[in-house]
Automatic annotation (TrEMBL):
This is Homocysteine/selenocysteine methylase. Zn(2+) binds at C213, C274, C275. It comes from the Bacteria. It comes from Microbacterium oleivorans. Keywords: Metal-binding, Methyltransferase, Transferase, Zinc. Residues 1-289 form the Hcy-binding domain. Its cofactor is Zn(2+). GO terms for molecular function: S-adenosylmethionine-homocysteine S-methyltransferase activity; zinc ion binding. It holds the Pfam family S-methyl_trans. One of its GO terms (biological process) is methionine biosynthetic process.
Length: 291
């Protein structure tokens, strides 16, 4: 595969969609605190197969099943640090095997709230200092970087403080990254988006900034505040709403990519889906962008 920075300069790249959604479609129960990380532990072949389905649909980038992998939640499930390191590396290997040289691999780095599994990635209300968040993110980022993905995907980052923390944790890892804010998080207002995106975009490792894991209608709110000349990343949910208390989705899916042309006009170079989006949705997006 060519260098991903060069590819981005040439054309928009299509991301994959909802890994957890498709694992559920294969019969896995993701209502536990480990979410897709539990499937990575128990059924890695299904994780590889879902990645392959998105590649077959035309995705240029597949994102690893490491979003909820953390040392604290895995410790509570009986896994020591070495085991977590091995799982993080395995998530990259499985995605690489599924890609078969046809797609880039982005190693997913979820927010602190994802490991808590309490919905706090939509509030940023962690009660944790920037320094502690930096330490918390750093080891996981370094282990994933050592597994040699093409990119790091810092996803659903839920507050200005967590943006500062992940930028610090990225320093010196030597792998290009994108940082996507939680556009549904109550921790950001308009000024907060602009400031956080500027902080993220200034990091040497960062090649794109934007938003994910939100209704499609909120994507433009963030893209409009991406600094001029910086590539943007956009991958919303289907339009349904997550209820953290019941751990279930509600509402109806909409036309997830109806505004994709407008996102490209606003600078989006990485476009895909997040929760509840499928390979069929991604195939439709590929066709839309090619048209």
């Amino acid at each position: 595969m060519p260098d991903v920075r060069a590819a981005l300069a040439d054309r928009p790249l299509v991301l994959d969609g909802g890994l957890g959604t498709m694992l559920e479609a294969r019969g896995h129960d993701l209502t536990g605190s480990l979410w897709s990380a539990g499937v990575l532990l128990d059924s890695p072949g299904d994780v590889r197969a879902v990645h392959a389905d998105f590649v077959a649909a035309g995705a240029d980038v597949v994102t690893t099943a490491s979003y909820q992998l953390g040392y604290d939640n895995l410790a509570a499930a009986g896994h020591d640090q070495a085991a977590v390191d091995a799982l993080l590396a395995a998530s990259v290997r499985l995605a690489r095997e599924a890609a078969e040289g046809r797609a880039w691999v982005a190693a997913s780095v979820g927010p602190f709230g994802a490991v808590r599994a309490d919905g706090s990635e939509y509030t940023g209300a962690y009660g944790v200092s920037v320094a502690d968040l930096t330490r918390w993110h750093r080891r996981r980022i370094q282990v994933l970087a050592d597994a040699a993905p093409d990119l790091l995907a810092l996803e659903t980052i839920a507050s200005p403080a967590e943006v500062e923390a992940v930028v610090a944790a990225l320093e010196g890892v030597g792998v290009p990254a994108w940082i996507a804010l939680s556009a549904a998080s109550t921790a950001f207002d308009d000024a907060g988006y602009a400031s956080a995106l500027a902080v993220a975009a200034a990091a040497p490792e960062v090649i794109a900034v934007g938003a994910n894991c939100c209704p499609p209608s909120l994507i433009s709110t963030v893209l409009d505040r991406v600094p001029a000349g910086v590539a943007a990343v956009a991958y919303p949910n289907s339009g349904e709403t997550w209820d953290a208390a019941s751990r279930s989705w509600h509402g109806d899916a909409g036309a997830t990519f109806a505004d994709a042309d407008a996102w490209m006009d606003a600078g989006a170079r990485l476009i895909g889906g997040c929760c509840r989006t499928t390979p069929t949705d991604i195939a439709g997006l590929v066709h839309q962008l090619e048209s």
